[in-house]
Amino acid sequence: MRYEELADEPCSITRSLVVFGDRWTLLILKAAFSGVRRFNGFQSYLGISKGRLLDRLDRLVEHGILEKRHAEVGAHEEYRLTAKGHDVYPILMAFRDWGDAHMAPDGPPVYYRHRECGGEGHVRLECDRCGNELTARDVTPEAGPGMAAAAR
């Protein structure tokens, strides 16, 4: 199966990977959450080539995750996170939690503190009905309405 065909698969994980499936896209989003907004800022922050950066920014704009704006009259374009883009934050924090647990032998390189109380934020997967925390062992996948639509 070709990479482009994955977007047609009836699986939300697979479809998401078509958008986020390379390291540069996630690193661009990490930079955006850190306050980087301009093309040159992304390029210097990441050390990414202009062509690759433009391709990834265009994809994020196309999917409504970032939007291009002019900050002021005559100013450079800025890339701003949309509401859809802000929904990516827990995904990045899940990567951070995993990385802190398995890739940081000297401890977390960065703490993400709650401004209000000083506690540290973590991603928690929980059941929408009972509120219990879930792991892969607690979940049974079953077909949803999108699967039936894909079969038609």
Note down, in words, how this protein is organized:
- The protein has 152 residues and is mostly helical.
- It folds into 2 domains: 1-86, Winged helix-like DNA-binding domain superfamily/Winged helix DNA-binding domain (Arc Repressor Mutant, subunit A, Orthogonal Bundle); 88-152, no CATH class.
- The protein has helices spanning 12-20, 23-33, 39-46, 50-62, 83-86, 89-102, 145-151; strands at residues 66-70, 77-81.
- Strands 1-2 form a two-stranded antiparallel sheet.
- β1 and β2 form a beta hairpin.
- The two termini are 20 Å apart.
Q: Could you give the count of β-strands? A: 2
Strand order of the largest sheet: 1-2
Instruction: Provide the gyration radius in Å.
Output: 18 Å
User: SSE order in H/E notation?
Assistant: HHHHEEHHH
Number of domains: 2
CATH architecture of the largest domain: Orthogonal Bundle
Mean of residue pLDDT values: 91
Characteristic key phrases:
Arc Repressor Mutant, subunit A; 152 residues; 7% strand; 2 strands; 2 domains; 7 helices; single chain; two-stranded antiparallel sheet; mainly alpha; globular
Record the SSE blueprint.
Blueprint: H1 12-20, H2 23-33, H3 39-46, H4 50-62, E1 66-70, E2 77-81, H5 83-86, H6 89-102, H7 145-151
Antiparallel strand pairs: 1-2
